[in-house]
Amino acid sequence: MAPPSPASTPDDEWTFVQPKKTRRANALTASIPPPRTGPLRAVPDIAAEYRAAVCLGIGTFDPADGSGEARRRTYVQLIAFLVMVDELEKNAGGEKLPCFFQEPIFTASDRSFIASLGHRVVDSPAACERVDRSTLIFGVHLYRPVYALALKNGPPAVFVGTGWDVWDRVSLAEEPHDLASLKVMEQTYGKAAFPQDALGTAFSSTSVYWRRAASEEAVPAAASREGEAHAQDDLADKLASVSIT
Q1: In which domain, by residue range, is 158 found?
Q2: Could you please report the per-residue DSSP string of 66-99?
Q3: CA pair distance 74, 4, nearest whole angstrom
Q4: Tens of pLDDT along 47-104?
Q5: Cβ atoms within 10 A of the Cβ of 171, count?
């Protein structure tokens, strides 16, 4: 059973729209403003060596019904993922993180677009199988079995998706241990609500978890919460300043 989402989908798909295979992607561009001139406030300290970033189920950039909301949701989620990757690369000394995208409904145009950004599109379940403790997982509003597959090898370095609190509130028939890694993150990781998209529901019921560094454990709780709030503000500012035409 999936958490509440804007629309229901077939069991073998993760997003809200069905593409036409012969339809070409619209000429859409995401206009991202120039980088800030001042330094970004520090993101929460994460005890990990980042080796890969995995983006799961963001949807198609060319919805069959031409829905502007569905198209915008996909672009906003893509931008949020790339902003996070950029911040992790800065923390890792500028070393580029390989990014893998897994989306069953990607069209040929979608795949070409992602490739043009320098990233790889892989077929399911290849991206999930790449996840380990040094991976960023970004997967918003996915079905429970997809999260279970992505987390089967244990908690990653960073996880963005439906939080344990949401799954814990609903009655589920699935194996109770399929999200054991998510429960571990709920109990031991840093956690914050993901910044919301003011114009839509792209990140409703979404949380971000990160493995705490040893240095962060010694930080007073109030200071830790302040750092988390600053990091949220930075990402929210970037999302709010994005225009999609």
Answers
A1: 43-244
A2: --HHHHHHHHHHHHHHHHHHHHHHHHTTTPPPPE
A3: 18
A4: 457 899 999 999 999 998 888 889 999 999 999 999 999 988 887 777 899 999 999 9
A5: 5
pLDDT value for 240? 55
Q: Positive or negative CA dihedral for 21, 27, 33, 34?
A: positive
User: In this prediction, what percent of the chain has a pLDDT beyond 90?
Assistant: 49
How far apart (Å, rounded) are the C-alpha atoms in residues 194 and 60? 22
Helices 68-91 and 221-240: crossing angle, nearest 10°?
A: 130
Q: What is the layout of strands, in order, in the sheet containing 158-162?
A: 120-121, 99-102, 52-56, 135-138, 158-162, 206-210, 190-193
Give the CATH number, domain containing residue 202: 3.40.50
pLDDT digits (tens, 9 = 90+) for 15-45: 333 333 333 333 333 433 333 333 333 444 4
Strands 120-121 and 30-31, how do they pair? unpaired
For residue 219, give the amino acid letter. Answer: V
Distance CA 192, CA 232 (A): 8
User: Does residue 211 form part of some domain?
Assistant: yes
Residue 64 lies in a domain: yes
Contacts of 144 (CB under 8 A, 6+ apart): 1, 2, 167, 172, 174, 178, 179
Domain total of the chain? 1
Within-domain flag for 91: yes
The reply to whether 10 falls in a domain is no
